[in-house]
Amino acid sequence: MITMKQYMAVKQAQRQGLTVSAVAVKLGRDRKTVRKYFRMDKEEFLRYLDRMAERGKGFEAYREDILEIYRNHEGRVVYSSAVYDYLHERHGELPGSERTLRSYLAYLKASGLVGKGKGREYRPVEPLPYGRQAQIDFGQETTNIGKVHFAVVILARSRYRYVAAQERPFTTHDIIGHLLDAFEYFGGVPEELVLDQDRTMLVAENLGDLAATRAFADFVAEQGLRLWACRAADPESKGKVENSVKFVKTNFFSSRMFADFGTLESDLRKWLLRANGRISQATRMIPLADFEAHEKPLLRPLRASVFRSSAGARPRERRKVDQQSLVSVSGSKYSVPSPYRLSEVEIDRREGFVRVFDPANGLEIAAHAESASPGAVVTNAGHYGDRAAASHAPRRAAGPASRRSRLGSLRRGHLDRLPPLLPRACRPALPALRLSARFRHPGPGAGLLPRKGALRRPRPPRRLHGAWRRPGGPETAVHGRSESGEGRPSRTADRREAAARRLSARARRGRQARRGRSMSVVAESARKLETLSLRGAAASLETLIERAQGEGLTYQAFLDALVDTELRDRGDRRLKRNLAMAHFPVHKRLEDFTFSRVKGITKRAVDELVECGWIDRHENLLFFGPPGLGKTHLAIALGQEAVKKGFKVCYERMTNLMKILSRADVSRSAQFRLSRLSKSDLVIIDEIGYTPIERNEANLFFTFVSELYERASIIVTSNKGFESWAELLGDEVMTTALLDRLMHHAKIFSLSGESYRISSRKEG
């Protein structure tokens, strides 16, 4: 049985021409049930409700027992299953099922004999301060392209929301990425985050103490967030989050079909802009306006995140770990911890490093400097710590460790000269041995000990066929002279060369340290620029500093470049914002318009209009002609050119403009749109004359045009000439006054020719 509200929904869908199957999917009901209500009219459905109310009268003999149960538990919720079990224990076989008893209890409650119980008591809650709290929850919906998983992040006070979707279930790393996207979309970070008890974020809760997963705990600490968790299995404690998920399901997914997932994401972004511009039933305010005016200035700046891949970084790739706990990347092999042997991991290559991540939780499990030579095996001894795993370690990784006996003659006085990769706890255990001057610091991934032969004394030069040659040396000589004309190299020269190499290495390490300090200073400066809302300058600061150092820019030139970058970034953001607020239904270009098939307008005339001087002079453009000639195309293309030149533009069809004007007194969304129209530099009114206009709508339209007169420009497209406007508006005097204002400073184009739609159909 369904309620009256559901019955009305079924009949409305039937009037819209939906099939029984489509209605069943939409309402989540069986097709047979929906088909039954398709055949009922309203009177039959009411009689059906009365019959259903009479069901369960077989329990009339147990009325006193049922009333006694409710009297003994007055003020508390009593479940029908508990009543059924009690009656079954007391009287044995009952005249109906538990569902029949529920119908009888509904009859008693409707008659007032049984109360519903107090249940949970509610009281009004004071609204949270702006910038205090954001909430996140997840949902999934089955669409024509398969199951879609989505996340909703909403600011608790303004109800400004962000929605992200993906084709697979969420992992911890996915959630962190979507939260970073949401905070970038909001332009800042709130103080606390409310979330459901999801295993991808929270491991457990103990008397209010939350145990988050390692990656999510690192993210929360990085962004300085406080965590609050909803009560488990209690949908009433989730409030705004649950309502937002339901809103996305019913408002976005319920009536849309998608060509692919890319189309879904594009439609979702467009819908999100419209959804945030509608009045909220909870706050009775428009979330976008409330957010921009009150909440956005109070959000904290988003901190640079280690979970965000750098620009241009390649996406992570999945690789299989072999039996020796090695994963292959670009011909070289890199070790991972032994527990990941024969499993899949994710690889991220950037900034000269190969990082390995656990695909289940997104945690980094290994990091190596990327090898320049293909075929190398780069290992970390810590990945083979246990004995069982050590037997599977690759031989090349175990090679340096097998040469530890070479350190048998080291002297304790030289132990501090060992490379820093060797643990300090191991140094006192090493026997005395003089450290050779040829001992070199191992490179990344080369193991803890020096290469083979590095600890041997340099062999003395030997005479070969009358020539002195140093083993491994670049010079050869004949009869005691080198090819360069010099004699046998002296030991003093060798010492000088070694000292020069040490000084060079020391200088290189100093430069690297200074560069690290300068990079931290650059990051701090970028954070300060973001605090001042100079996002463009913050994003390009590092690049500009490198350019200034390379080209030797002066302070003035560097400052000019930084300011120019910020201005360009603000201009790009302003352009995107104005294009979105213009509400253009499609994107049109003047290059796509064929002037040869239309009479009444030339390319030269349109090129003059592109300069937009007529907008500065508050002139109007009027396009008249039959359908299919490109009037809307020209209007939208000129409007987009005006947006690029920095003008505020609004596009509305005549039918939608009438709705906005008539609802402005009762709808906040209509007030918001009308305010935007009134503040625009150019208003495009399309398709005047296609639908009839009532007298009160004509009066509102005349008032609207009068307010824009000589203050903003108007583009009008119509399929009716001036002589038909009096019949359209219903008042000849008002029509004359309206046309007088439109035509006073106007350029009129009367188009003629064959419809583009008809000609393209003929050609096809």
Please provide a written account of the structure.
The chain is α/β, with parallel strands linked by helices and 764 residues long. It has 26 helices and 25 strands. The strands form eight sheets. A five-stranded mixed β-sheet has the order 3-2-1-4-7, with helices on both faces. Strands 21-22-23-20-24 form a five-stranded parallel β-sheet. α23 links the parallel β22 (682-688) and β23. Mean pLDDT is 76; it is low at 310-314, 386-393, 395-457 and 461-487.
Estimate what percentage of residues fall within beta strands.
Answer: 15-25%
Strand order of the largest sheet: 3-2-1-4-7
Helix vs. strand class: alpha/beta
Q: What is the CA-CA span between the terminal residues? A: 53 Å
E-strand count: 25
Helix content: 40-55%
Quickly describe the structure:
The chain is an alpha/beta fold and about 775 residues long.
Name some characteristics of this structure.
five-stranded parallel sheet; 26 helices; 764 residues; 25 strands; flat; single chain; alpha/beta
Topology readout:
Layout (H helix, E strand, L loop, with lengths): L3 H12 L4 H8 L3 H8 L3 H13 L8 H10 L7 H12 L6 H14 L21 E11 L2 E10 L5 E6 L5 H15 L5 E4 L6 E5 L2 E4 L1 H10 L2 E4 L10 H14 L7 H15 L11 H9 L21 E4 L5 E4 L2 E4 L8 E7 L2 E5 L6 E6 L7 E2 L8 H4 L4 H4 L63 E3 L2 E3 L7 E2 L2 E2 L8 H41 L3 H17 L3 H28 L15 E2 L3 H8 L2 H4 L3 E5 L6 H14 L4 E5 H10 L4 H11 L3 E7 L6 H14 L4 E6 L6 H5 L2 H13 L1 E5 L1 E2 L2 H8 L1
Parallel strand pairs: 1-4, 4-7, 10-14, 20-23, 20-24, 21-22, 22-23
Antiparallel strand pairs: 1-2, 2-3, 5-6, 8-11, 9-10, 11-12, 12-13, 15-16, 17-18, 19-25
Helix pairs in contact: 2-3, 15-16, 16-17, 21-22, 21-23, 23-25
